[in-house]
Design goal:
Mean pLDDT: 94
Radius of gyration: 25 Å
Oligomer: single chain
Strand order of the largest sheet: 9-8-7-10-11-12-13
Helix content: 25-40%
Number of helices: 21
Shape: globular
Low-confidence stretches: none
Length: 552
């Protein structure tokens, strides 16, 4: 045994091997020694966050681009604040590692056997661990240096294999204790398929593709989470079949592709996409998750749709269990004789700059019509849970993996905080644009502090209509087209969002006309050294056009 090798070093080295370059952290006395003595000198940059939920969202955004993210917090008072962020990552299959600095064995035993409590204790050694067992794929307590290597390797392997969060309790008295150094490198476990189910599924899908007059491919979020973009694109090319995405998987493949038809998201879809999906006689849904946000008042036709996701294939009454998505795509690629009938793509509506006067008041839909011109192949777009789901859904986003949304879990306030991690994980030539509702932004506004501190430069548009618009829309959308008042719980206390730039040391603009908006965006694009916050004031009953279906 190398006597200079410790548990704290082991964890750092494994995280570095997995490609982690930044770790989001909140100082706490149960974790600070590990951060200071092991992480800080390791080459992993410490990103000191302002609160645990922001750290969790930042790690989530980081992991979506880098393949792994991590945050370190302190026991109970810190860890339990991160629960919402970890839950969202669990639902959306995002691989993040939560390291929870935990009181020593001596403190734990003293509390359990005498009642003498240490700060942050609730009910002994199981409180935090049990809380996270339900929202992680591995929850381990590192309370023995000889077991530490196996426990760390087990948890991290589960994280990168299942693309979901894991939880590590790192006891403060374990950090400096000796352990064996890492052996080899961690790799995801092998994916397994039942050969009979796989062959049957490939055969059934090939038969339907051959006989289909109007086939359609529906690309889902698992194509991104499992790193199957290249194989999915090869299959689309080989079949020469048009494809659509869902809000959760928007821009997983470039929206500049000639076979891309649009985003299929229930009644929020464009008319062309709705017609394309309705006329399809067979839909191959690869990695699609069915959620209420992805259906929006529309139900798929299960008899004509083959859903390949969650390790299974479902087509009508057929169920093929234990069929890995990657193996299914490999099987379809190998069946080169499959030649569906050529299908003509619907004409894409020509994008034109709207004719608006500089003094004209901005509307919700007008904002999205206007901002489209600033989105190119070097732009990463992130939309928060709000009416911005609708506005951003129909944007053209040409960059592959250039759209980030947490639409399955849909925690408002996610996107602005996640932008911290996205900015640290992106390429140097990319720029991040965030579209947030005002209610959501109020929840995580301190993200501007971290972004300013580290010289990050997202452009954050806060659509300021003074209400929780999407909550009102979900409850009673008729309010937006009548004189009926908003529900009282939906009315916000108004902030002067642009003035937060003075608090945090970044740049800000308040706009209510298109002329002001153009000036603000130009200034934000020039600002490369700090975040830019653009407060976009719109009338309180203005909503995107593709949200109007529910107001009737």
């Amino acid at each position: 045994m190398n006597k200079r090798y410790s548990v704290g070093q082991y964890l750092v080295d494994r995280l570095r091997q997995l490609g982690l370059e930044h770790l989001f952290a909140i100082a706490g006395d149960y974790s600070i020694e590990w951060l200071n003595r092991y992480v800080a000198p390791s080459g992993i940059e410490l990103v000191e966050e302002v609160n645990e939920v922001n750290a969790g969202y930042a790690a989530d955004g980081y992991a979506r681009l880098k393949g792994i993210g991590a945050l370190c917090v302190t026991y109970s008072a810190g860890a339990l604040c991160a629960v919402n962020a970890v839950a969202g990552a669990y639902v959306e299959k995002v691989p993040i590692v939560l390291i929870n600095g935990t009181p020593s064995i001596k403190k734990t035993l003293t509390f359990e056997q005498t009642g003498f409590s240490a700060h942050h204790f609730i009910s002994g050694r199981e409180t935090d661990l049990q809380s996270f067992e339900h929202i992680t794929v591995a929850a381990v307590r590192i309370d023995n240096p000889d077991l530490a290597p196996n426990l760390i390797d087990y948890a991290l392997t589960r994280c990168i294999s299942e693309r979901r969060p894991v939880y590590l309790e790192l006891l403060q008295d374990m950090v400096d204790l000796e352990c064996e150094p890492p052996q080899g490198e961690l790799k995801p476990v092998r994916i397994l398929s039942d050969q009979t189910s796989l062959e049957e599924s490939v055969e059934k899908i090939c038969a339907r593709l051959e006989s289909a007059e109007n086939p359609l491919i529906w690309i889902g979020v698992e194509i991104d989470r499992l790193g199957l973009q290249e194989k999915a694109l090869r299959l689309i090319r080989q079949l020469d079949v048009p494809f659509v995405t869902e809000l959760l998987s928007k821009a997983v493949l470039s929206e500049d592709d000639v076979l891309f038809a649009g985003v299929l998201d229930g009644q929020a879809s464009s008319a062309a996409v709705t017609e394309l999906a309705g006329s399809a006689d067979f839909v191959l849904a690869l990695g699609v998750w069915l959620t209420d946000i992805n259906s929006l008042g529309w139900n798929p036709d299960y008899d004509k749709t083959a859903f390949a996701s969650m390790d299974a294939v479902k087509l009508g009454t057929y169920f093929g269990g234990q069929v890995a998505l990657e193996h299914l795509i490999d099987g379809l690629l190998a069946a080169k004789q499959v030649a569906p009938n050529a299908r003509k793509l619907p004409a894409k509506p020509a994008r034109s700059v709207p004719a608006v006067a500089g003094t004209e008041v901005i509307t919700y839909q007008g904002f999205y019509n206007y901002v489209q011109r600033y989105i190119d192949r070097n732009t990463i777009v992130s939309a928060d849970a709000s009416m911005n789901y609708f506005g951003s859904l129909l944007l053209d986003v040409p960059a592959p993996s250039g759209f980030i949304v947490q639409s399955s879990y849909s925690a408002i306030g996610y996107s602005a905080a996640a932008a911290t991690g996205v900015c640290l994980a992106k390429r140097d030539d990319q720029r991040v644009m965030v579209f947030s509702g005002d209610g959501g932004f109020q929840m995580t506004a301190q993200c501007l502090s971290t972004q300013t501190r580290f010289g990050l430069n997202p452009i954050i548009f806060v659509i300021d209509n003074g209400v929780y618009g999407v909550e009102q829309w979900l409850a009673d959308a008729s309010v937006f087209h009548t004189d009926k008042p908003f529900y009282r719980p939906c009315i916000l206390h108004r902030w002067n969002y642009s003035r937060l730039s003075e608090v945090f040391g970044c740049q800000g603009w308040e706009v209510s006309t298109y002329g002001e908006l153009g000036h603000a965006v130009a200034g934000a694009l020039e600002n490369s050294g700090s975040p830019s916050i653009i407060q976009v004031r719109v009338p309180d009953k203005s909503i995107p056009d593709n949200a109007n279906w529910k107001t009737q």
